[in-house]
Here is the input.
Amino acid sequence: SRMEESIKRTVTENLVVVYSKTWCSYCTEVKTLFKRLGVEPLVIELDELGPQGPQLQKVLERLTKQHTVPNVFVGGKHIGGCTDTVKLNRKGELEPMLAEAKGK
Amino acid sequence: SRMEESIKRTVTENLVVVYSKTWCSYCTEVKTLFKRLGVEPLVIELDELGPQGPQLQKVLERLTKQHTVPNVFVGGKHIGGCTDTVKLNRKGELEPMLAEAKGK
Ligand SMILES: N[C@@H](CCC(=O)N[C@@H](CS)C(=O)NCC(=O)O)C(=O)O
Ligand SMILES: N[C@@H](CCC(=O)N[C@@H](CS)C(=O)NCC(=O)O)C(=O)O
Ligand code: FES
Here is the structure.
């Protein structure tokens, strides 16, 4: 579908992409984490897209099996939500992932 | 106002009250925390009350200066949101507060 293609293009053309909602503290946490690591994520606020928001959230669910926000991609790879991202960082695996994706 | 009186009654008649939204992970965290401490909070899901939800959230803001969820009360006392509650627990101050309120 067109939205699916648009998501795939977005996540491959941007180092970090976070599908988010403006009021959500878990989304805030994940955006802050990336900024602290020196990376400016591309943030797509699903609640600011009118009726397109829920549509996008549905397509994301089809693509990632995840229906929640934040929905996080690094180097085109789906890494999960807030807890997954924080875990990856605590294990020391997030920064190497970012460095490798940057290098490409 | 009637809603203000209803909130005051609710928070004084229940050991722990959490004003919450069903989809919110910060609210889930706080509910889980109290259950782990052996306390069953009274949970009011603001997104399940139709038009009353936003009204209640406004009155809570007037009463507590807090417009966000979760909005947490222990022993009738406003303690704050998720971060405040977690902090209080880490400092070892939450359980004494619960014990004292239970005693009353
Ligand atoms: N463990 C997940 C929790 C994700 C989650 O439950 N997200 C909530 C918001 S905090 C959500 O998307 N709720 C449904 C919605 O807002 O559409 C994570 O760490 O990201
Ligand atoms: N630091 C606060 C953050 C509270 C917060 O930003 N809550 C969000 C949801 S996670 C909120 O209420 N947003 C506005 C709304 O949903 O009406 C806490 O720990 O509770
Ligand atoms: S909406 Fe509260 S943490 Fe996401």
The radius of gyration of chain A is 13 Å. The beta strands of chain A are 16-20, 42-45, 71-74, 77-80. The helical segments of chain A are 2-13, 25-36, 52-64, 82-90, 94-103. Residues 52-64 of chain A form the longest helix (13 residues).
